[in-house]
Amino acid sequence: MVIKKIGEITDEVQDIEMTVKILSLSQKERNSDKGNSVYHYGLLGDETGVLPFTAWNISSIVKEKDVVNIKRAYTKKYNDKIRIYFDDKTEFALMPGVEMEVKRTYNYEKIRNLGTGSKFVALEGILSEEKEREFETNGEKRKVYSYVMEDDTGSIRLSSFGRKLPMGHGIRLEGVKIEEFNGRINASVGEKAEVQEIELQIEKGPKFTYISEIENPIGGLYISGFPISIGEKSGLIKRCKECKKKIDDERCETHPDAGFYFDIFAYFNIDDGTGYISVTSGMEALKDICGIKSDELSNEKRPPLRKEIYERIEHSLMGKALKVQGSLSKNTMGMSLRASLISSIGPEDNKELKKIMESEFL
Amino acid sequence: MREGKREPARWIFSKELRETTVIEENTEGEKMRSMFLTPLGSIGRRILFAGKVTNQREDEKSIRLTVSDPTGAFYLSFFERDFNQNVKRQLEKIELNQTVTVMGRVSHYTGEDGKILFNINPELIYETDAESMNFWNARTAYLCRRRIMRIKEALKKPDISTGVLTASGSTEDEAEGILKSIKAYPNYDYTKFEEVLTSLLFNQQISQNINIAKDGILEFLSSHVDPQGIKYEEIVNELLKKGISQNEVDEALNVLGHEGDVFEVSLKRYRKI
Ligand SMILES: [Zn+2]
């Protein structure tokens, strides 16, 4: 018999002895010619790692969270992954009073593949844009730090509870919780999650994507295409001076005496040959391409004209090939892109895009 | 603005539409809908393209435009009775030799010789710039090459399904179009189309203006035959009338010389071969 740590098991072995913690234990019925039988499956682990198991036979004394010494187990590959098996030769001995800190292992994911399906993952990337915030839990004040985490496929918002994380350098985080919030993918880590500094080369800046390949609401992307329709209500809008919300009537419903200021906003559909997506954009994203300056909007002697602003936006966007950078978000209408910057495609962009397209045929 | 699922606009070269001989007829409720099915697997009723306005005619009832891309021309017509004031307003701003981006619905009719001919009813037309046109050419060439590549893969496996194609990176409707076009165009020569794309990509730095200069020079040299050759200055002056600069004429003369269409008889005197 060989004594093994979970982290050492990488191949098919017979007759193993191990001391492990049972992390989960479930039961399943199997129907065959010989009648119905029951088997168990779950996860077990020790200080070096976690593996799944299947038990054709398991002692009834074994429960979830028990630390158990197991003799005569074996491993086999299932679907190309190692799995531990117990059968009627396997022996189980409980080890009461033994504490075991299990090393969790998580599947490594690229940011663009972060669907809402996977709950806990490992991520690699570079952090930036630290923001500190306080929150209360169970009457206790705690700090949360939020970042933008970027890899070579995109970016997401990451919150770290109670702990500052290193910025500007490659890191690997184990056990990152992935959730969808407000139509966007958010990541968070607790204080105990493992952080490791790693060598990581990432080209900074938004990553190219075809519209047909968009799946998950992440950020740090850009698309390139032609606008195919522009929303009629694009152009000049009024915002409440107090709450900054868009005013549809003459005054803000909540702050009728606050007054208003002008802002610009545009929404349009853009097509890149593989599909189309709707884009929303504000002053920051539009000001350069439309040539609209903020003093124009606040000029009281010559207030901006609705029709003129609409036409300037229409003229600078429609008919032109555009590069739109921003973050995706999901709502009832589907996915849309919130633009952080819109620019017209120039010679350098064309060169870059050709390189990306050519690489598919090499 | 989002009126449910919008019908996709296919980005295709005029050559792909011109070589289309299959129209799919589907009944959708009461209505009969016809869709083009191109030899390269694009299905639809709507296209998007960029090109140069090479012909323009207008009468009381309609506006007709010819818009050229590097592989030929699209024919557009807009009828007064269509009453789309927004499109009409944009159309009225368009002038000859301008470069434009167009999205439009494709309708077809059968010509005297039985060939299917296509007409584009613009839903959107705006003036565009050279880089936007370069962008459209490059992206459209890419999408063509991608479909040809997948058609060739599919031809090797007779039982291939849309599932296999989507698993290898096709979008669902791309896969559907590919499989339909293989059945509908059993003898199509993909290599010829690929050659066009290769030369198109190779010549992308030669802007569309230079292509127009080439045609202009050849036309001028054909109608002004002189065994001694036509003087360089005369060519420049003639093309200047068409809005082509001296630089573009120089570039076009180089290309024509290189391709063997024009011969320099003596210093700065040219003749068509
Ligand atoms: Zn307010």
Structural notes for this entry:
The complex is a heterodimer of chains A (362) and B (273). With 362 residues, chain A is mainly beta. Chain A folds into three domains: 2-94, OB fold (Dihydrolipoamide Acetyltransferase, E2P), CATH 2.40.50.140; 111-197, OB fold (Dihydrolipoamide Acetyltransferase, E2P) (Beta Barrel), CATH 2.40.50; 211-361, Nucleic acid-binding proteins (OB fold (Dihydrolipoamide Acetyltransferase, E2P)), CATH 2.40.50.140. Chain A has helices at residues 283-290, 294-298, 306-317, 347-358, and strands at 2-3, 16-32, 35-46, 49-55, 67-78, 81-86, 91-94, 120-137, 140-151, 154-161, 170-181, 184-189, 195-197, 207-208, 221-230, 235-240, 246-247, 260-271, 276-282, 322-331, 334-344. Chain A has a five-stranded mixed barrel. In chain A, strands 8-9-10-12-11 form a five-stranded mixed β-barrel. The longest helix of chain A has 12 residues, at 306-317. Chain A is elongated and about 90 Å long. The two termini of chain A are 51 Å apart. The mean pLDDT of chain A is 90. Chain B has 273 residues and is an alpha+beta fold. Chain B folds into three domains: 10-128, OB fold (Dihydrolipoamide Acetyltransferase, E2P) (Beta Barrel), CATH 2.40.50; 136-192; 205-272, Arc Repressor Mutant, subunit A, CATH 1.10.10. In chain B, 41% of the residues lie in helices and 29% in strands. Chain B has nine helices and eleven strands. In chain B, the strands form three sheets. In chain B, strands 6-5-4-7-8 form a five-stranded antiparallel sheet. A three-stranded antiparallel sheet of chain B has the order 1-2-3. The longest helix of chain B is centred in the middle third of the chain and has 27 residues, at 130-156. The mean pLDDT of chain B is 88. The structure holds zinc ion. Zinc ion binds next to loops of chain A.
